[in-house]
Amino acid sequence: MTRDSAAISVFTVLAELFAAAADGCRDRSPLTQRLLTDAADDLRQGGVTAKIMAGSECDREGTVPGLRFAGAVHRLVLEGRAPGLAKHYPSVGGQPHLPTLWEDALPALNAHADVLRQRVLATVVQTNEPGRSAPLYGGLMVAAQEAAKAAGRHVPFCVRLLEVGASGGLNLRPHHVGYQLPDTVLGDPDSLLVLDPEWTGRPPADLSHRLRVVGRAGCDPAPVDVSTEDGRLHLSSFVWADQLERWNRLRDALDLAATDPVRVDRSTGPEWLAHQLARAERDVLTVVWHSVVWQYVSPADRAMGRAVLADAAAKATPLSPLALLVFEPRRTDDGYRFELLLKLWPAGISLNLGHGAGHGTPFTWDVTPWE
Ligand SMILES: C[S@@+](CC[C@H](N)C(=O)[O-])C[C@H]1O[C@@H](n2cnc3c(N)ncnc32)[C@H](O)[C@@H]1O
After folding, report:
1. Ligand 1, closest atom to CA 224?
2. Which residue has the higher pLDDT, 337 or 102?
3. Torsions phi, psi for 22 (to 5 deg)
4. Is ligand 1 within 6 A of the CB of residue 268?
5. With a 6 A CB cut-off, is 246 part of the ligand 1 pocket?
């Protein structure tokens, strides 16, 4: 095999990953689907996309090189460095015209190939989905009230929220978000971020109570600092530009975060969690929360995380209770279902609170035991 044919065959494999990523956007983001389909063809022909992807040729499927490419291109548009392409991007006021997308992309790809290559090499796909605050809010309401009942109290517990895999920390202020239901607004109706949770049913809790959050902390192996322009652009670039609802939600969540900063520490989780859980607060429910993170955690970190939690659970008391609340995908016969699970110690409660779409909305409240 000559060097050229070896290079072409490597890019053929990468082109398949781009095509698979394009397929993943079907019915959800026609713009990204078309960009990745044309980029896959360009890769097969050794065009500018091959230059941009040089160094990433052998990346694994799990690192989704196609979405890193699409994110880097989107970021170029957001930075105003691809004016000829911007007219296709609704995130900057454009309107996609798919038949001419690729020919309008080419000048930007050629002009900025080096910058794009560096960004594709340096980034991991990072989404921080504020829509997940809606199931989190409902789950916290249930947890605070169930813990109070178990302790023989009428008033729900105050909550200390500890998030593992928090990304930019956008879900660390669920009490400052508004949740627009058909008949009322839960949370903060004056918030910069008002979500339509699209709930079927309601959380099994008295929703007239206020959620009181008295402490928050988050960690992530790749934390995004949303107080910086770079951090905001980073998260924004991975939202598909023609998903305007998500785009607007992220923009509002970033605006809210600017008024209420929370630091996200750099850590994979277990040691950070052990440190956080070493301090139990009286009259406060400590809640460990993670959403769409578990699939990324190594088996060693999973085992260590479970051990840390089991240790803290054994020490929990009715007046210093502990909860685990997670929103994670579970494999079903026809794909994945995102489920909201709650465990409470020492009450011994273990519930599946319901299921919803991966971005947190819509969500169906449907309580069953969590086996
Ligand atoms: C799909 S994002 C979800 C972010 C956030 N939890 C949310 O729901 O918006 C997955 C997050 O998991 C983080 N992550 C990756 N590996 C991890 C690990 N071993 N432990 C904890 N978090 C991890 C990533 O950095 C990323 O921020």
Report:
1. 27
2. 102
3. -60, -45
4. yes
5. no
List C-alpha distances in Å: 22 to 29, 40, 113, 251, 258. 9, 9, 21, 25, 33
Cα–Cα–Cα angle for 297, 298, 299, rounded to 5 degrees: 120
Task: Tell me the pLDDT of the chain averaged across its residues.
Answer: 95
Dihedral, CA atoms, 158, 132, 262, 267, nearest 10 degrees?
A: 100
Residue with token string 């909550």:
159
Torsional class of 360: left (φ above 0), alpha (ψ -120 to 50), beta (otherwise): left
| C-alpha 4 to ligand 1 mean position (Å) | 38
Convert the pLDDT of each residue in 53-109 to its tens digit: 999 887 777 788 999 999 999 999 999 999 999 999 999 999 999 999 999 999 999
Distance CA 17, CA 66 (A): 7
**Dihedral pair phi/psi, residue 68, rounded to 5°:** -70, -40
Q: Which of the listed residues 193, 220, 264, 292 should we mutate to test ligand 1's pocket, taking the one with most ligand atoms within 8 A of CB?
A: 220
Looking at ligand 1, which residue's alpha carbon is closest to its atom 9? 128
Give the span between the Cα atoms of 80 and 90, in whole angstroms. Answer: 13
CB-ligand 1 contact for 129 (6 Å cutoff): yes
**How far, in Å, from the CA of 288 to the mean position of ligand 1?**
14
**Which pLDDT score, from 0 to 100, does residue 3 have?**
53
CA geometry: angle 109, 112, 113, nearest 5 deg:
70
Number of C-beta neighbours around residue 275 at 10 A: 14
C-beta of 63 in contact with ligand 1 (< 6 A)? no
Nearest CA to ligand 1 atom 7: 128
Q: What is the pLDDT of residues 188-208, one digit of tens each?
A: 999 999 999 999 999 999 999
Centre of ligand 1 from the C-alpha of residue 295, in Å: 9
Each domain of the chain, given as residue ranges in start order, spans: 3-122, 130-369
Ligand 1 binding pocket includes 361 (Cβ within 6 Å): no
Go through the chain and tell me how many residues it has.
Answer: 371
Under a CB-based contact definition with an 8 Å cutoff, are residues 211 and 137 in contact? yes
